[in-house]
Amino acid sequence: MEKIGKIITFILWALIIVSAVLIISLVANINDVNKQDPAMLSWINANLVWVYILGIIGAGIAIFFGLFHTFTNKQAAKSGLISLVFMGVVALVAYLLASPEMPQFIGIDKFIAEGLTSGTVKLVDTGLHATYILFAIAVISIVLGPVIRLVYNK
């Protein structure tokens, strides 16, 4: 286990060093006079690619360990499944409450000409209703949370 910790520490230091070299190279090549300097633009592109790589690796590791934890821990799998069912119920209720009717306002003809359909309107309305439902649940839990804790802690 100690060997894995050393490997992870080595990898983290390597990532920090590569990031520092890229940032220092970018700062050294910034040119205020010529905004189209190829060297500066190549360092900007290199830094952007590095950020994308780090983001993808970080997201992949987070998803992998989340799934690993879920599949190796029955309680985590149960709570994850409950969360998915809850989100599905919220999405279903929001979809059933949504209306496919086109809104009426000045300039709607432009949006219809650009491809606005009743299906798109229904999906947007679904998203709005889901936001309202989740906001209401959050407010209710904030208001009732202390009351419930007082009642059940006695």
Rounded mean pLDDT is: 87
Our measurement of the CA-to-CA distance between the termini, rounded to an integer number of angstroms, reads: 44 Å
Tally of strands: 0
Rounded Rg: 25 Å
Strand content: under 5%
Estimate the global geometry from the Cα principal axes: flat
Contiguous runs where pLDDT drops below 50 for at least 5 residues:
none
The string of secondary-structure elements, in order, is HHHHH
Can you tell me the number of structural domains?
2
**What portion of residues is helical?**
over 70%
Main beta-sheet strand count, sense and barrel state: none
SS content category: mainly alpha
Question: Helical segment tally?
Answer: 5
Name the descriptors.
2 domains, 5 helices, 154 residues, mainly alpha
What does this molecule look like?
The protein is mostly helical. It has 2 domains: 1-72; 75-154. The chain is built from 5 helices and no strands. The mean pLDDT is 87.
Secondary structure elements and pairings:
Layout: H1 2-28, H2 38-72, H3 74-97, H4 108-113, H5 118-152
Compact overview of the structure:
This protein is mainly alpha-helical and about 150 residues long. The protein is about 80% helix and about 0% strand. It folds into two domains: about 1-70; about 75-154.
